[in-house]
């Protein structure tokens, strides 16, 4: 009897050991990740919101996944991209008020950890296909140095939609630091390269693919068939209820400038087709169910005259911190993990992407500096709201230098400040809203709640003191006499020709801390310094 029982126990342990070592009991397979980033897409310019532009691919992602209904970005390009890649506030990074322009030498500090670096360290293949716009002056800022094994695309914005792709007259199209001349429509070239990468990937490892389109950024252009499709589209957009945006449309009409709306529609349609090509490749490869797909716009639609976008019923547009400038079209799909046809009502920001995707993928976020974003993966999978306990801040100084648009908001209140700064003056306009009750910002409650305005304005003021003194500002023109290179691929200074450490700056080392303190609200000399105001203003 004992021998029989012992044999059964032994067989049981052997069976358990085999089960534990079997594929069924192995660690879960990590998902692939694909991020599509539109450039200046309007809130109302998608089919699922009843817009007049055909967007079946974006609509499909919403139907098969979750709409991120209160997803927020910064009001302009570079800050959004910096926030997404680092999970940190662009105000700390020195890229908040304006975008990185061709004549700038600024980029994101090499000590900052980028999202693809964490995914690559976890065994992922990493690739970027599209527009970078996060630094080009030295190799430390290049995509291949920030976690991307493969880079196909453009260092700058506004390179055009047809060859020769260039910025300020300098050619800007490369593959991993080598200038290329691939012919075709830019949006479709990106789709083809992304699809090729997926097909030719190492199928034994997951991949992280970032596809930031130039579309539908100006200057707008599209294939002839799409131009013809929308040539009779009427520009029936309602006012944006924003002085800057609406004035540009009025001026354009007075100058008999044709509406940009038809061409914009053609560009958006082409972008949607490109998204569809990549989704079809995932289907063909049989990996759609194993892939997280995230789609969003880098800021609100460019609703001004030459932009052609529409954000109504939201107020304002690109460059502004009203909802139309920062609340964007966004959706995430992962079949079987994210409930299909659902909507997330919790506030989610571009800074939350890194921690959210890391948790969803089982990837360790290897940042050493504190993230300003938070993971919303539990809210996405459960559908349960996640409260916003602290303020979310955004800023812009675009397009007019000295004209700032600022905001702070949480689940209860939103304060928008418009500041017009002159040589001897600064005029501040305050707009206070309850977004849950007034999502389209019709009712300014600032006069009724001066205490709330004062509290939130003080928080914005303190937040702005984090900005490095040499951070981006709005500059529509280059320094006098500045010239662009003939080919941007050779512009970044190679690593071998750079010193090993960041430059120390002009002040002597022992004077740096007191000088930083003396700068006060003017900004930070010490990188990533957060003044401890109650204890003398020195860095924490």
What's the gist of this structure?
This protein is an alpha/beta fold and 540 residues long. It has three domains: 41-382, Alkaline Phosphatase, subunit A; 392-497, Arylsulfatase, C-terminal domain; 509-540, no CATH class.
CATH class of the largest domain reads: Alpha Beta
Total count of strands: 18
* Mean pLDDT score: 93
Major β-sheet, in short? 10 strands, mixed
What is the CATH-assigned architecture of the largest domain? 3-Layer(aba) Sandwich
Describe the structure.
The chain has three domains: 41-382, Alkaline Phosphatase, subunit A (3-Layer(aba) Sandwich), CATH 3.40.720; 392-497, Arylsulfatase, C-terminal domain, CATH 3.30.1120; 509-540, no CATH class. With 540 residues, the chain is an alpha/beta fold. It has helices at residues 2-20, 56-64, 77-86, 90-93, 115-121, 186-199, 224-230, 243-254, 261-284, 323-326, 353-361, 377-382, 450-464, 512-519, and strands at 32-38, 66-68, 71-72, 125-131, 150-154, 166-167, 170-171, 174-175, 178-179, 207-212, 291-297, 330-333, 342-344, 348-349, 392-396, 403-409, 414-421, 426-433. It has 14 helices and 18 strands. It has a ten-stranded mixed beta sheet, sandwiched between helices. The chain is globular and about 60 Å long.
């Amino acid at each position: 009897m004992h021998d029989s029982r012992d044999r059964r126990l032994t067989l049981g342990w052997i069976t358990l050991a085999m089960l534990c070592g079997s594929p069924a009991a192995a660690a879960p397979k990590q998902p692939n990740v694909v991020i599509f980033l539109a450039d200046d897409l309007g809130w109302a310019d998608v089919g699922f919101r009843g817009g007049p532009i055909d967007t079946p691919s974006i609509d499909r992602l919403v139907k098969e996944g979750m709409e991120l209904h209160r997803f927020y970005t910064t009001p302009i390009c570079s800050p959004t991209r910096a926030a997404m890649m680092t999970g940190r506030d662009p105000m700390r990074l020195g890229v908040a008020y304006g975008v990185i322009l061709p004549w700038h030498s600024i980029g994101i500090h090499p000590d900052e950890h980028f999202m693809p670096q964490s995914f690559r360290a976890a065994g992922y293949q990493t690739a970027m296909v599209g527009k970078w716009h996060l630094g080009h002056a030295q190799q430390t800022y290049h995509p291949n140095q920030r976690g991307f094994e493969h880079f196909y695309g453009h260092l700058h914005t506004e390179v055009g939609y047809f060859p020769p792709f260039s910025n300020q007259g300098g050619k800007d199209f490369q593959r991993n630091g080598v200038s290329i001349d691939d012919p075709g429509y830019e949006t479709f070239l990106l789709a083809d390269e992304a699809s090729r990468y997926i097909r030719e990937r190492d199928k034994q490892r997951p991949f992280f693919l970032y596809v930031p389109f130039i579309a539908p950024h100006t200057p707008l252009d599209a294939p002839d068939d799409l131009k013809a499709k929308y040539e009779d589209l009427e520009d029936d957009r309602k006012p944006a209820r924003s002085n800057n945006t609406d004035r540009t449309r009025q001026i354009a009409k007075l100058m008999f400038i044709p509406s940009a709306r038809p061409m914009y529609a053609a560009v958006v349609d082409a972008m949607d087709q490109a998204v569809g090509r990549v989704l079809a490749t995932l289907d063909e490869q049989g990996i759609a169910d194993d892939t997280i797909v995230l789609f969003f716009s880098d800021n609100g639609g460019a609703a001004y005259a030459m932009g052609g976008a529409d954000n109504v019923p939201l107020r304002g547009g690109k460059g502004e911190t009203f909802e139309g400038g920062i609340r964007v079209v966004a959706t995430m799909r992962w079949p079987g993990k994210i409930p299909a046809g659902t909507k997330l009502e919790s506030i989610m920001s571009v800074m939350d992407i890194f921690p959210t995707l890391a948790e969803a993928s089982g990837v360790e976020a290897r940042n050493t500096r504190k993230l300003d974003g938070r993971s919303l993966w539990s809210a996405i999978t459960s559908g349960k709201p996640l409260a916003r306990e602290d303020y979310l801040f955004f800023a812009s100084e675009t397009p007019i230098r000295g004209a700032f648009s600022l905001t702070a908001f949480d689940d209860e209140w939103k304060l928008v400040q418009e500041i017009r700064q002159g040589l001897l003056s600064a005029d501040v306009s305050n707009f206070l809203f309850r977004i849950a009750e007034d999502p389209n910002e019709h009712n300014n409650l600032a006069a009724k709640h001066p205490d709330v305005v004062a509290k939130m304005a003080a928080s914005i003021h303190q937040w702005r003191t984090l900005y490095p003194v040499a951070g981006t500002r709005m500059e529509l023109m280059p320094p006098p006499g500045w010239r662009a290179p003939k080919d941007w691929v050779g512009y970044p200074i190679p690593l071998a020709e750079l010193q090993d450490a960041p430059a120390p700056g002009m002040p002597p080392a022992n004077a740096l801390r007191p000088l930083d303190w003396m700068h006060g609200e003017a900004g930070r000399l010490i990188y990533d310094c957060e003044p401890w105001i109650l204890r003398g203003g020195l860095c924490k």
